Amino acid sequence: MTVPAETGGARRLEWHTLKLIENPVTRYGLMAGVLIYLFWALGSLDVDWNRISQGVVRTGNMFGRMFPPDFSRSELLIREVVVSVQMALAASFFGMILAVPIGLCAAVNLVPRPVYLVARAIIVLSRTFHEIIWAIFFVKIVGFGPLAGVLTLTIASVSFISKMLAEDVENMPPEQLEAVRATGASFPKLLIYCISPQALPRYLGVSIYRLDANIRHSTVVGIVGAGGIGQVLAATFSRYDYDFSLAILLTIIAIVFLGEIFSNWARGKLR
Fold first, then answer.
1. How far apart are CA 126 and CA 205, in angstroms?
2. pLDDT one-digit tens code per residue, 170-223
3. CA 252, CA 244: separation in Å to the nearest integer?
4. What would the mean pLDDT of 162-167 be, rounded to a whole number?
5. Which residues, in sequence order, are CB contacts of 133 under 8 Å at separation 6+?
6. CB atoms within 10 A of CB 104
7. Do both 147 and 234 map to the same domain?
């Protein structure tokens, strides 16, 4: 950090290291404790070097069987990729819709505290578990297929978008909210004339980013049976069909790359 210093009547800037812990004994003691813990954690790992050496050989064999990639089953490949993209689009749409009321209710400067606590509890609960856990849960409930994937990605989208929306609303200058309230404006008018103009660009940007993330995550949740190309990828690995696995992986890379391009373009338009 820079600190102004007086030198012969002139002000100049001097660089000083920012110290989070001023007491040197506490600071270096904490660093030593972290290093000791890291060495202990590494030493407690049960590393079997024989298995690692065998794994290196198996990896070479697997990559050798991957080339050249097999695109002969392009019909199956395209169909499952379309399913994954449809899952991502549907989950992003439902997530955008459901995240608005939850996000607004999770803003402490907008709603009564009981409503705020309930909405925050919903966000925390939905963010507690990874998408894989939700996918396994929904596969057990609704069975294998895209429906479990859509439900999983919808929950992930709602938790992410609503949290970002709530924080944006809470970070708004309180003077603006109080000024609109002082005019006697109702809650819908407060949303339309005060909150929407400030939160809408950020909300759309976050939603587009979530769509990009859902395209990637649709593959992951498919591996546990939630439909899409991930389910086919898991099946090819279990059958040692490595050349088709590589074709699927290359297709996933292309889809994610195109999604990233679209996401950057759309967010650039919102700036």
1. 21
2. 888 877 778 877 887 777 888 888 888 888 888 888 888 888 889 888 888 888
3. 12
4. 91
5. none
6. 20
7. yes
DSSP for 174-241, please give it: HHHHHHHHHTT--HHHHIIIIIHHHHHHHHHHHHHHHHHHHHHHHHHHHHTTSSSHHHHHHHHHHTT-
Tell whether 255 and 152 lie within a shared domain.
Answer: yes
Do 80 and 112 lie in one domain? The reply is: yes
Ordered DSSP codes for 128-175: HS-HHHHHHHHHHHH-SSHHHHHHHHHHHHHHHHHHHHHHHHHTS-HH
**Residue located via tokens 């939630």:** 226
CB contact at 8 A, 138 and 77: no
What is the rounded distance in angstroms from the CA atom of residue 56 to the CA atom of residue 51? 9
Same domain, 22 and 84: no
H or E stretch at 70 = none
pTM of the predicted structure, to 2 decimals: 0.77
